[in-house]
Amino acid sequence: MKRFVVAGHLLALAFFAFGLYGCDSTPRERQAAVRQEMQKLDTAARASGRTLRRVGRQVARFDSANHARRAVPLASRQQKTVDQQLLGSYATQVSTLTPATIGEAYGTLLRAVRAHHKAWQLRDWDYAQATYRRLNERLACVRLDLPARDELRIRAWQAEFTALRAKRTAKDLRTATKKP
């Protein structure tokens, strides 16, 4: 039994020695390889930093332009025209919409937005957002009397409006941050 333990230890020692002998690089070679990989990482980090600074400046310009655009008040005449386009016959009745009619007003709004949103400029979205906001304010007044199925449909339309608006914002942001 003692012979097997000693033989096992010798066999393990032989494998260890063979492993050391089989290593084909020196510590200096390994240091050089590590240095080379570190240089690659440093180069990648510097490039990423430059890209991040560039994109940060572009996003700041994008935000500044949006802020300046939104600071200009919407023209009431243009808002009435947009309301008419988006809400149809409901345009003049927003403040008097009832639980029975508000669902159809949202449906009319979303059908118009789907039909026209691809051709809209950012200012057109500002007007549409104002119409949507007024409709949401009226919804807050009548929501407690709204049947659950109508509220669910309205929430779906609200989600769709928000998604279309977010899609446009993402597209504009992607365009603004493209590499010059």
Describe the structure.
12% of the residues are buried. This protein is 79% helix and 0% strand. Residues 1-6 have low confidence and may be disordered. The chain has helices at residues 2-22, 27-71, 76-87, 102-116, 122-142, 148-176. The N and C termini lie far apart (77 Å). The chain is built from 6 helices and no strands. With 180 residues, the protein is mainly alpha-helical. Helix 3 crosses helix 5 (122-142).
What is the fold's blueprint, element by element?
Blueprint: H1 2-22, H2 27-71, H3 76-87, H4 102-116, H5 122-142, H6 148-176
In which range does the helix fraction lie?
over 70%
> What is the number of E strands?
0
Which range does the strand content fall in? under 5%
> SS-based structural class?
mainly alpha
Q: Compute the CA-based radius of gyration.
A: 33 Å
Strand count, sense and closure of the main sheet? none
Q: How far apart are the first and last residues' alpha carbons, in Å?
A: 77 Å
- What does the average pLDDT come to? 86
Give a quick rundown of the structure.
This protein is 79% helix and 0% strand.
Write a concise keyword list for the protein shown above.
single chain; 180 residues; mainly alpha; 6 helices; elongated; disordered N terminus
